[in-house]
Specification:
The chain is of the alpha+beta class. The chain has eight helices and ten strands.
Length: about 220
């Protein structure tokens, strides 16, 4: 979410977090570029320092063609809306707006993009809306980081993630620690999942690279 108005950022963040969304924020277009890789939906203000929302939309389309983009702007004329949509935005909301409407539109963009609200991998179920993980129907006591890490892996079964890439996605690009923090959280997750690292059902170590979620989780 990118806006140079801290009040708008705060209001939307509160509403989105109330719906269990993890929100990344930037106040200018250039800073936002570093966050796009971590996003499932991008919300850009039109008038931004350094790189406008329109320019940012063009860059997002070049880098991540499947990323849904919503433009927020005080420019409500039809020509402006058409310009934003023709540039590549998927949705366009004029200011002043209802935060509840923005949240509803975010949900619609996620559905349209095929982002599932419940991930199922054999006996493991992850609800993205309620942030509840269950194994064989029993809720797991996961920390926020553990849940976010597990969802990141489970959303892309078979994809190999480096530790550095996982840190960017889960901890954020400004995390000051080392990538070895991933190993600690993976160890914790395996304990919660009763997942034997030598014969993993869920999370597999890719030596010299990182980790992946198994694509063929048995039931």
């Amino acid at each position: 979410m990118v806006d140079d108005d801290p009040g708008i950022l705060e209001v939307l963040r509160l509403y989105l977090e109330a719906e269990q969304h993890h929100v990344l924020e930037a106040r200018d277009g250039l800073s936002a570029l570093d966050l796009l890789a971590q996003a499932d939906v991008a919300i850009f203000d039109w008038m931004l320092p350094h790189l406008s929302g329109i320019e940012l939309t063009v860059r997002a389309r070049e880098l991540y063609p499947e990323l849904p983009v919503m433009l927020l702007t005080a420019r409500g004329e039809e020509e402006d809306r058409l310009h934003g949509l023709n540039t590549g935005a998927d949705d366009y909301v004029s200011k002043p707006f209802s935060p509840r409407e923005v949240v509803a539109r975010v949900h619609a963009l996620l559905r349209r993009a095929g982002v599932r609200e419940v991930l199922q991998a054999g006996p493991l179920s992850l609800s993205l809306q309620t942030r509840v993980a269950t194994l064989n129907g029993t809720p797991l006591d996961l920390s926020k980081l553990e849940f976010d890490l597990l969802v990141t892996l489970a959303q892309h079964p078979g994809l190999v993630w480096t530790r550095e890439r996982l840190v960017e996605r889960v901890w954020g690009v400004d995390y000051p620690g080392t990538a070895r923090v991933v190993d600690v959280q993976i160890t914790n997750l395996r304990k919660r999942l009763a997942d034997d690292p030598d014969h993993p059902r869920f999370i597999e170590t890719v030596r010299g690279v990182g980790y992946k979620f198994k694509a063929d989780v048995p039931g």
